Amino acid sequence: MLKYFRLGCGLLFLSGLTACSSFSQLSQTHPVQPEPQILNIANPIVDTVQHQVAIRRISDILTQEQLNDEQQAELYFRRGLLLDELGLMHLAYFDMMQALEHKPDLSEAYNMLGIYYVRQEEFGRAYESFDSVLELTPDHEYAYFNRAIALYYGERAQLSYKDFESFYNINPTDPYRVIWWYFAEYQESPEMALSRLKQRAGKLDKNAWGYKIIQLFTGEIQALELQQLAAKLSHDEQGLNEKLCEAYFYIAKNYQMSNFNEAAEYYFKAALSTHIYQFVEFRYAQTELKRMAAWQQPAS
């Protein structure tokens, strides 16, 4: 998916589960909680050696006093990205703050800070960070996307439309731009959102993996089919884990939007089991689970 940042795979409780019905069937004829089915086809082992070595080398270089501010900013930023890709988002946050101390106009660091604040549900600070990115780099397309996501999760979905539209218009052939805009519009009107989803999908490559995800939301394929396609279209374990991270997240969103919350929770957790930390789907699977847990808390 979208890797800006877009984000190996352990699987949950696998054997003996029955296949899910399609979204359209579930919502129209079987309003019961579907039983998830997850394929046991991924590798839970994540190789982090290269990242760890790179982090150590950057840390060693940062101890050299002859570095100027711009060099230090670049190194803190690069180490922060590596830490983020290992799932160490709080350590990554500190490095991004250090990078900005040395280079206050480093727009990419503001972008990463904004993503961090969204995940912490500090939406005001997230908006400020993405605004800073766009002030410094007006053509930074992913700042529009990330600000739109912040507005979406900040319960301001209608305000996100303009940013989603700006992001979409830069590349209308990217199916993920269509999917996330659909999520925002769904908050206003599911019928309108579905109609626009189908309209925008008509411009896409129908053989692309992202288009298959869209077919999940239009009811043209089932959850199990999407997982099988992930396996079929992947050429190595890393690619498989990445596609499964996406598949699980969007399957979860599909169930959530049909109020099948137990199934949605199951698949959000499956997305986290992939450890593809830098993918949007991994990042916001965590957010979705936190929000679902909050909804389930009894009123005090």
From TrEMBL:
It is found in: Cell membrane. InterPro entries: Lipoprotein_NlpI, TPR-like_helical_dom_sf, TPR_rpt, Ycf3. The keyword Membrane applies. TPR repeats lie at residues 107-140. Residues 1-24 form the signal peptide. Its main location: membrane. Keywords: Cell membrane, Lipoprotein, Membrane, Palmitate, Repeat, Signal, TPR repeat. Homodimer. May be involved in cell division. This is Lipoprotein NlpI. The lineage of its organism: Bacteria, Pseudomonadati, Pseudomonadota, Gammaproteobacteria, Alteromonadales. The gene is nlpI.
